[in-house]
Amino acid sequence: MKTNFSLGDFDFTLPDELIAQHPAPQRSASRLLDGRTGTMTDRRFADLPDLLIPGDLLVFNDTQVVKARLFGRKSSGGRLELLIERVLPAHAGAGLEVAAHMKVSKKPQPGAVLQMDGGFSATLLGRWPNDDGPLYRFQLSDDPYALMAQFGHVPLPPYITHTDSPEDEQRYQTVFAKNPGAVAAPTAALHFDDAVLARFDARGIARTSITLHVGAGTFQPVKTANIADHVMHFERFEVPPATHEAIAECRARGRRVVAVGTTTVRALESAAKFGPACDDTNIFITPGFEFKVVDVLLTNFHLPKSTLMMLVSAFSGHAHTMALYRHAIAQRYRFFSYGDAMLLQRLSSST
Questions:
Q1: How far apart (Å, rounded) are the C-alpha atoms in residues 129 and 112?
Q2: Quick one: which of 58, 221, 246, 271 has the fewest CB in 10 Å?
Q3: Is residue 172 domain-shared with residue 306, that is, in the same domain?
Q4: Is 39 exposed, middle or buried (0-12, 13-18, 19+ CB in 10 A)?
Q5: Distance (Å, rounded) from C-alpha 75 to C-alpha 86?
Q6: What's the whole-model pTM score?
Q7: In degrees to the nearest 10, what's the CA dihedral of 18, 233, 64, 79?
Q8: 83 and 50 in one domain?
């Protein structure tokens, strides 16, 4: 079994027309590639409740995508775009501040006051989280969440080519989102609707949730040939006590923990690896990683050479993962955030 992987091992060629630009007409109408047992079975997502066992535990990410993309201009008139990565805690005399990506032709200097579309201002305070940090720290003239809700745009991924629309505002959000803070959706959970959730309940399949606020770094390409040299971005997360209890109860009845999405995997495995006090993670899961919590994974299809491809390969085996991707391309599955899903089991798990 191969143990040393380079970036090229996670590459594949994807026809542009397989990149889903819009969601399926109905959330649960998407396709599902069942790859749990080393074979490949083409199914519909609505089949998922029948593929799990009563007593299994579904774990969702209940983060809520905020309309984090804001537009404005410098005092010189030059246009700019801010993508708010996180709202920072308030501290005495400063009010609420944000850490954001800034897209502009020439970066303004600290102290510059930017006039944003909608009539509010953003004052540049410096870099974040330190003087050499990749993000910029701003103080907004009003509550950041209120400003994003009123004037922001849905932060669609870079491979979706249309501007955000009312459809995106509804569909680039899970039906159970409740904790605002993400700039990208936990996309495997976008397939769930109330009817499918009711079928899980009827079959005796338990549900619980974590919160991981997905950052824009999830789209950051890996640029190092040696994947061990890649530095992961940090994301805030919480695994509440009720979820720890639900996992313990699932184990006690001999059933499986089913993670809905790679973000849920990152949260659960971070808490297991670093302890319950951990609330910010840059865990990098690559082949050879020892999973401690997750037995089954539901996930969408990911970008070539991405950290998410590496996580899925670690979970289900590199050769099997690449074979699944070849099958999905041949069978014209829809890829990425608005695309289809696949169901996988951990290498050491039983069917």
A1: 19
A2: 221
A3: yes
A4: exposed
A5: 25
A6: 0.95
A7: -80
A8: no
The tally of CA atoms less than 13 A away on the side-chain side of residue 144 is: 28
Q: Show the domain range for 229.
A: 7-65+166-345
Q: Is the distance from CB of 285 to CB of 302 less than 8 angstroms? A: no
User: Same structural domain for residues 33 and 140?
Assistant: no
Structure tokens at 190: 């976008």
328 three-class SS: helix
Rounded mean pLDDT for each run of 10 residues along the chain, 351 residues in total: 85 97 97 91 98 98 98 95 92 74 95 97 95 94 95 97 97 97 97 97 98 92 92 94 97 98 98 90 96 98 97 96 98 98 84 40
Domain count, the chain: 2
First to last CA, the chain: 21
Written as six digits, the tokens of 63 are: 């983060």
Angle, CA 242 vertex, CA 237 and CA 246 arms, to 5°: 105
User: Where a domain ends, among 97, 118, 151?
Assistant: 151
How far is Cα of residue 226 from the mean position of the Cα atoms in its chain? 24
Which residue, chain included where needed, has tokens 């973000």? 263
The Cα–Cα gap between 311 and 259 comes to 13
Q: What is the domain-level CATH number for residue 320?
A: 3.40.1780.10
